[in-house]
Specification:
The structure holds 2 protein chains of 2 kinds. By secondary structure, chain A is α/β, with parallel strands linked by helices. Chain A has 12 helices and 12 strands. Chain B folds into 4 domains: 182 residues, Pyruvate-ferredoxin oxidoreductase, PFOR, domain III (Pyruvate-ferredoxin Oxidoreductase, domain 3); 182 residues, 3-Layer(aba) Sandwich (Rossmann fold), CATH 3.40.50; 73 residues, no CATH class; 114 residues, Rossmann fold (3-Layer(aba) Sandwich), CATH 3.40.50.920. The chains are: A alpha/beta, B alpha/beta.
Chain lengths: 350, 599
């Protein structure tokens, strides 16, 4: 059951350039577990769109299946949404984008929805450089079926029941880089200071913008020994959230100490390493991005922030040389070649 | 019996040796002489090396279905020679390359042999190895033209058209034709008893494939987003769309008024179609049985979430990979009820390329009107073979029916928009296109249960209201889909026959054969699923109904039994599932067998 959010709001809520308050960017009340990282990401999306003065109805939001994929109901209530089938959001987003290139396409997915059942569609959306924002709410487990390991669970990570994951994890950022994504970022649901600007940057990017957000499952993957155990981290991230990340369109600055690592000790005793974007980092250098990702992985750290950015701006419509007008706006006169042409075709078939 | 304009020629070739264009030249020359003919390509799942056949039936009476028995076999493939000799009817002719002598075991007393040194001649006349190969094919067409009395001028004309812009290729081709003709003139008695005579029986007919017609129909029907995955025998639907659209759909800036994507698999292809349709474009995919299997989950979503989809299913022989280059009508069950849960899908059954054009174009109207998947059930025979058919027509006053879509102005007048409200009591709700209005009309499409306002719910009553409305919509669909075509209404009889798609040609011929022996059978050609009342009435008003189809399990019979609530014992199956197009002989003998058993 989705609950409609009460319409009553404080009369002096700030408005953006469109005269909208954040209310216009919210959705129905979340039905996810209290404290779920995904809700923080929804809130970040709301805030990012509000701050960017995006008209809500100019966004189309899409998802697959799973906890993460329920979230489009919880943000941007004035946007059309499509909760597709498991692992198949990229194809629906591709078709939608081809039909109308003028909307902003925001896809949200989970680690199961992207790295397992949806791997096939994910990689092909990346390599087509589809103009969309693709956010993975990555908690390393299948929340909605009660906590099974997902393909992004790190090798050696311990489940709530105590079993240790024996398989290598899939690094979605590395994969996206490899396949030619033109924007790759990674963040943490508890770090809204970093996440909101990162989403804003992704939304202003032309091409495939991938944002992998580590988002804790408070119910099934929050135990000692889990490398995605974050409920304690969320509280601590506020303290360490000194990242200042400004949208790409202006400049990148950082208020934290350049090149520093942040290590957060959780109250259950596990550690989380956050490696902030280093000084002198060239986000347009793919090789250095790949190297940094691999390096962080070897050090058991999570590299966050903007990882790679290409200003190329070449997306699927450019490859296809398709009309600059949205295809869904073309009228019958422009689509149907007419009777005389058909007679000519008939003649050629006799 | 006269064999003028009434015979079958079969060509036995090696795949990948350039025989297709020579064989097509032969078939088209007969068409140009005003004589009805139907060619069938019988090819392997292979690019080069395996045996391939091309059969041309010539029929003055206009019977275009496949016919058993070969009158003239042109054999240029040693691999298949044994079966090629065996396929010739007694009294028929076996034309072969006698550069090498024929093995003794291939000699039959009851047929005639026409040995022509194709290889030796072409090796002598041409130096380029590729030309030696290609012109062997043209040379046998020349020989056949002399044996069957095909007008040389027609062949010349066709070559001139084929090589327009590459005129220097005409002369060597004409030379090869003449090599064949001269050899026949010098060595054989000609013409043969089976031969052609110019007629005026094709009128303004066109010769084309169902797939090409579907591609063109999609251009005319306004498709803008096409997503597909290569699979025989449907590949040429997307390719035809692309070719036609490249010519017909380029805007003033040189950009395309369409987008075509070769997807990573069929799941993605149908997903893209759903995404594009949801977003207000007309969109389609083309596939075959294995693709439909993969698309099941998405088809269920489209049914339940009510998103228009157009899918051209060019059926082939299943199950599994089956015989991927052979024809069948065996996707009916999976298409009709694709996906888990209670689902039903609209199917259209074209029987000619003309209908492939019409039905593909119409299906965009239907899909948007009904907000549901529409599947055009073609097959390999219809899709990939050339068929003589009536020319394509388009009503210049026709307007696309975009179905029930609320505009921004509409939304301004509505207090609260409910995506799944049955406003008009026909089961079809109003949809909105993303981006239409700043504050109204948005909703989340989902495959989960929802209420009339598209809000997620697990409330049983809301779920049932929705499912019942979808049933009501199904009833509405019956009034919108293509009505069946009735034959022989005046000769009302106690027996009826139901058929559809590519079974039509042979079924009509079979009914004529039976009628000639005094057995009159009413007939109804199904053009769509769901069945409307005419179909139910037809079954009810006959003691027995033969259901003629090209699959093993009588899938159409099952649909009729399930959907019409009729006594299954009344429905007698007439089946063909060997992968070859059904013949009138097969139908006639099975009907006679049924009649003998019941009388």
């Amino acid at each position: 059951m989705s609950f409609l959010r009460p319409k009553f709001r404080h009369p002096h809520l700030p408005t953006n350039e469109l005269g909208y308050t954040t209310t216009e960017y919210e959705g129905s009340l979340s039905t996810l577990c209290a404290g779920c990282g995904h809700d923080s990401i929804s809130a970040a999306i709301v805030q990012a769109c509000f701050e960017m003065n995006i008209e809500p109805h100019k966004v189309a939001k899409l998802s697959g299946i799973g906890c993460s994929s329920k979230t489009p109901a919880y943000f941007l209530g004035n946007s059309h949404g499509f909760n597709t089938v498991h692992g198949r959001m990229p194809s629906v987003a591709t078709g939608a984008n081809l039909a109308n290139r003028d909307l902003i396409y925001l896809g949200v997915s989970g680690d199961g929805d992207t790295a397992s059942i949806g791997m096939g569609q994910f990689v092909h959306a990346v390599r087509r450089n589809l103009n969309m924002v693709y956010i993975v709410m990555n908690n390393g487990c299948y929340g909605l079926t009660k906590g099974q390991d997902s393909a992004t669970a790190d090798r050696g990570s311990k489940s709530k029941a105590g079993s240790v994951n024996p398989f290598e994890s899939i690094d979605l950022c590395g994969l996206a880089l490899e396949l030619g994504a033109s924007f790759v970022g990674q963040s943490f649901s508890g770090d809204k200071e970093q996440l909101i600007p990162l989403i804003k940057a992704a939304m202003s990017h032309k091409g495939f913008a991938f944002v992998n957000v580590i988002s804790p499952c408070v119910t099934f993957n929050n135990n000692v020994g889990s490398t995605k155990s974050y409920d304690y981290v969320r509280q601590h991230m506020e303290a360490t959230a000194t990242v200042d990340f400004v949208p790409m369109m202006t400049e990148i600055t950082a208020s934290y100490e350049q090149g520093s690592d942040a290590t957060i000790s959780m109250h259950d005793g596990t550690l989380l390493h956050l490696h902030k974007l280093a000084d002198g980092w060239d986000p347009s250098d793919k090789l250095s991005a790949i190297h940094a990702l691999q390096h962080a992985r070897n050090e058991a750290k999570v590299l966050t922030g903007l990882i790679y950015y290409s200003a190329d701006g070449h997306e699927l419509h450019d490859v296809l040389n398709s009309s600059e007008r949205p295809l869904n706006s073309l009228r019958q006169e422009e689509l149907c070649p007419g009777v005389a042409k058909l007679e000519e075709i008939n003649k050629g078939l006799r | 019996m006269s064999m003028i304009n009434d015979f079958v020629v079969r060509f036995a070739n090696v795949n990948g040796t350039g025989s297709a264009s020579a064989n097509y030249l032969f078939a088209k020359s007969i068409f140009r002489m005003g004589i009805p003919m139907s060619p069938k390509n019988i090819f392997p799942s292979n690019i080069q090396g395996l045996p391939t056949w091309y059969e041309v039936r010539v029929s003055e009476r206009g019977y275009l279905g496949r016919r058993e028995g070969v009158d003239v076999c042109v054999s240029v493939n040693p691999q298949s020679m044994k079966q090629d000799v065996a396929c010739v009817k007694p009294g028929g002719y076996f034309l072969y390359d006698n550069t090498k002598p024929l093995a003794a075991e291939l000699i039959r007393e009851d047929i005639n042999y026409l040995g022509i040194p194709l290889m030796a001649t072409c090796n002598r006349e041409y130096t380029d190895p590729r030309q030696r190969q290609l012109f062997k094919n043209v040379m046998y067409v020349g020989a056949l033209s002399a044996l069957l009395q095909i007008e040389f001028g027609v062949l010349e004309e066709l070559l001139a058209e084929q090589f327009a812009g590459k005129e220097k290729l005409i002369a060597p081709n004409v030379k090869a034709l003449k090599l064949g003709i001269d050899y026949v003139h010098e060595h054989f008695t000609y013409p043969l008893p089976m031969r052609v005579e110019r007629r005026d029986l094709v009128g303004n007919s066109i010769l084309t494939t169902g797939n090409s017609a579907s591609g063109l129909g999609a251009v005319y029907g306004g498709a803008t987003v096409v997503a597909w995955y290569p699979i025989t025998p449907s590949t040429s639907v997307a390719e035809a769309f692309h070719e036609y659209a490249d010519e017909l759909r380029i805007d003033a800036d040189g950009r395309t008024n369409f987008a075509i994507v070769q997807a990573e698999d069929e799941l993605a292809a149908i997903g893209m179609v759903i995404g594009a349709s949801w977003n207000g474009s007309r969109s389609f995919t083309a596939t075959s049985g294995p693709g439909v299997s993969l698309m099941n989950e998405f088809l269920g979503l489209a049914y339940f979430a009510e998103v228009p989809v157009v899918l051209v299913d060019v059926q082939r022989t299943g199950p599994s990979t089956g015989m991927p280059t052979r024809t069948q009508q065996s996707d009916l069950t999976i298409a009709a009820y694709a996906s888990h849960g209670d689902t039903k899908h609209v199917m259209l059954f074209p029987s000619t390329p003309t209908e492939c054009f019409d039905m593909t174009a119409d299906s965009f109207d239907l899909a948007e009107r009904l907000q549901t998947p529409i599947m055009i059930m073609s097959d390999l025979d219809l899709g990939m073979n050339d068929h003589m058919c009536t020319p394509f027509q388009w009503d210049e006053h026709s307007e696309y029916d975009r179905g029930k879509v609320y505009s921004a102005e509409d939304l301004d007048t509505i207090k609260r928009y409910g995506r799944y409200q049955d406003v008009d009591h026909d089961g079809i709700p109003y949809r909105t296109i993303p981006g239409v209005h700043a504050t109204k009309g948005s909703y989340v499409v989902r495959g989960s249960s929802r209420d009339e306002f598209a809000v997620y719910t697990e409330d049983s009553a809301a779920y049932m209201r929705n499912m019942d409305r979808l049933s009501k919509k199904w009833e509405t669909a019956k009034t919108l889909v293509h009505a069946p075509q009735r034959y022989q209404e005046k000769d009302a009889s106690t027996s009826g026959a139901l058929f559809f798609g590519t079974t039509t040609d042979s079924a009509q011929e079979a009914l004529d054969i039976l009628k000639a022996s005094g057995i009159v059978i009413d007939a109804l050609r199904l053009r769509a699923f769901p069945f409307n009342n005419t179909v139910a009435e037809f079954v009810r008003s006959h003691d027995r109904v033969f259901v003629i189809e090209q699959n093993r399990d009588g899938q159409m019979r099952s649909l009729l039994t399930t959907e019409l609530n009729v006594d299954p014992a009344k429905l007698l199956s007439v089946l063909n599932y060997d992968g070859m197009p059904i013949t009138a002989e097969t139908i006639t003998s099975q009907i006679l067998h049924h009649l003998n058993q019941t009388s």
